[in-house]
Amino acid sequence: ETGVTQTPRHLVMGMTNKKSLKCEQHLGHNAMYWYKQSAKKPLELMFVYNFKEQTENNSVPSRFSPECPNSSHLFLHLHTLQPEDSALYLCASSPTSGFSGNTIYFGEGSWLTVV
Amino acid sequence: GENVEQHPSTLSVQEGDSAVIKCTYSDSASNYFPWYKQELGKRPQLIIDIRSNVGEKKDQRIAVTLNKTAKHFSLHITETQPEDSAVYFCAALSNQGGKLIFGQGTELSVKP
């Protein structure tokens, strides 16, 4: 158990639905991340939050909307997704972002299927 | 932009043999290089990391080497065991934006 928990673990949603992924870390970290992991592709960084402020948006479509109310919680709001958005969405945290040697700890991920 | 290339994409070895996975990075400002192991259906977990001021680091059966001049680093697993079977990801952290860029992953299969 690395202290980063994600819910739900599995989600099936239609293209017109609105759903949210939740991430919580109990490690006292100040940086949180969303990564997307698709089959046969490298881990893709989506968003970075440092001390609740978004510091990175890696050209992610607006149908993905992150929210970071505090340093321990991170959400990914989903709306009007496409089937190609089906993937494993991994939340991660680290002490801070942007500095060397900060180990990133991943959650178990949320498997998303868009039908 | 920053890029990390990882090879091979799949690797099959016999139990007891060694396995080597290689990565190259493009950003010369990168200074931290972690390796993650992801077992099927589980999260990526850090197994070893190396900083740019060190050329080699070892932890039991795993070791990582770094060649800053050539901008490549490698993971070495000796005396492989079936439980080493997993997907391994290398990554490079760039001071420019602080992004951790991952390689494409190597699926290692250790056959008993």
The shape of chain B is globular
| Uncertain spans of chain B | none
- The count of strands of chain B amounts to 11
**Number of distinct helices of chain A:** 0
Largest sheet of chain A: 7 strands, mixed
Based on secondary structure, the structural category of chain B is mainly beta
Radius of gyration of chain A from the CA trace? 13 Å
Order of helices and strands of chain B: EEEEEEEEEEE
Q: Whole-Å distance between the termini of chain B?
A: 41 Å
Termini separation of chain A (Å)?
31 Å
Describe the structure.
- The complex is a heterodimer of chains A (115) and B (112).
- Chain A is built from no helices and eleven strands.
- Chain A has strands spanning 4-7, 10-13, 18-25, 31-37, 44-50, 53-57, 64-70, 73-79, 87-94, 105-106, 110-114.
- The mean pLDDT of chain A is 90.
- Chain B is globular and about 45 Å long.
- Chain B has strands spanning 4-7, 10-14, 19-25, 32-38, 45-51, 56-59, 62-67, 72-77, 86-93, 100-102, 106-111.
- In chain B, the strands form two sheets. In chain B, strands 2, 4, 5, 9, 10 and 11 form a six-stranded mixed sheet that branches.
- Chain B contains no helices and eleven strands.
- In chain B, a hairpin with a 4-residue loop joins strand 7 and strand 8 (72-77).
- The interface between A and B is medium-sized, with 23 and 26 residues.
Relevant terms:
heterodimer; A: 115 residues; mainly beta; seven-stranded mixed sheet; four-stranded antiparallel sheet; 11 strands; globular; B: 112 residues; six-stranded mixed sheet; five-stranded antiparallel sheet; 0% helix; 56% strand
Layout of helices and strands:
The complex is a heterodimer of chains A (115) and B (112).
Chain A: E1 4-7, E2 10-13, E3 18-25, E4 31-37, E5 44-50, E6 53-57, E7 64-70, E8 73-79, E9 87-94, E10 105-106, E11 110-114
Parallel strand pairs in A: 2-11
Antiparallel strand pairs in A: 1-3, 3-8, 4-5, 4-9, 5-6, 7-8, 9-10, 9-11
Chain B: E1 4-7, E2 10-14, E3 19-25, E4 32-38, E5 45-51, E6 56-59, E7 62-67, E8 72-77, E9 86-93, E10 100-102, E11 106-111
Parallel strand pairs in B: 2-11
Antiparallel strand pairs in B: 1-3, 3-8, 4-5, 4-9, 6-7, 7-8, 9-10, 9-11
